[in-house]
From TrEMBL:
Residues 21-30, 45-54 have a biased composition (Basic and acidic residues). Residues 21-62 are annotated as: Disordered. This is SPOR domain-containing protein.
Amino acid sequence: MSVVSEGQWWFCLRHMRVEPDKGCPNKDRMGPYSSEAEAAGALQRAEDRNKAWDEADQDEDD
């Protein structure tokens, strides 16, 4: 994304891309993040956390 902003960044779940503060409604986005790069990793970070939580739940069930 070529938009330069010192504000907050979001990952839009509707368009599957990083957006600056002005973009789609927050209900369609993950964030805010402090940088464009951090927002770009939102889906991977969520996947990693979900996996860790699932593994923790499995450990508790054992």
